[in-house]
Amino acid sequence: MSDAGAAPAVVPAGARGARWRTLARIAREQPLGAFGALVLLVMVVVAIGAPVFAPFDPTQGDAASLNSAPNARNWLGTDAFGRDNLSRLIYGARISLMVGLGASLLGVVVGAALGIVSTYRGGWVDTITQRVMDALLAFPMLLLALAMAAVLGPSLPNVIVALAVPIAPRAARIARSSVLVLKATTFIEAARATGCSDLRIIVRHILPNTFAPLLVIATAYLGLAIVQEAALDYLGAGIQEPDSSWGLMMSGSATALALTAPWIVIFPGLAICLTVLASNLLGDAIRDLLDPKLRGK
Fold first, then answer.
1. Which of 88, 150, 171, 194 has an alpha carbon 20 to 30 Å from 254's alpha carbon atom?
2. What residues form DSSP beta bridges with 213?
3. For the whole model, what pTM was predicted?
4. Which CATH number fits domain 30-48+83-295: 1.10.3720.10, 1.20.1250.20, 1.10.287.3510, 3.40.50.2000?
5. Helix (H, G, I), strand (E, B), or coil: what is residue 236?
6. How sure is the predictor about 200, in pLDDT bands with cuts at 50, 70 and 90?
């Protein structure tokens, strides 16, 4: 019989201190990666707390202050409709980060699943799957994403799917290269000899050993997906008004006013550049930490 008065399990203070010391050591070894992680964390916090941080309604315009330069009231100026650029930038972080995270995770998960299963099974399954991947890889990423967005229609879920489709075959190739090496290893042969099912071998033995390279490319494609989403917005196939995203802020009339009101395009452009830089720095740091050859240097 369980003791109703038993105290809940408490993490020892020494264990918590060890975790913080480990994080501090990693930050010292990978300062650029720590900077990238901090930037992404701040952006996620700002995006989640957009109603708190945004000073104005991002959809509400002011006819008296169209294309206003940065001032004490509108720190980043206003756009052609009198909307506060800072508020739109903060709310735009929600959609841009959601698209980047959603597209990179969906593309890597689907691509990794196809690559692992087809390579492990081999035969006609692998042949057909890889030829489909070859066909998708023949298209430039933006062109394929634009075609998918045009077919699916302009909405947030459809943009995520459209951007995930070009990522999937690239993730499948990374997973395939790892599985080809793992299939010939002794522990996989031992697992087969002991009667383990294919599903158990994939989940318990192959997937954990392919996690590191997939995590690295997921962080790399995070920034790329945000850039591609901005390109789709610029071409009119991405997020639509009245929603706000960094790419949408740089499209339409903003490009025509770039010379007379440069603050309209400079600040969302800087936000995209900073996010891409942070994701790349984080990806490089994760690669260095997970690669035993680089870790030993």
1. 150
2. none
3. 0.81
4. 1.10.3720.10
5. coil
6. confident
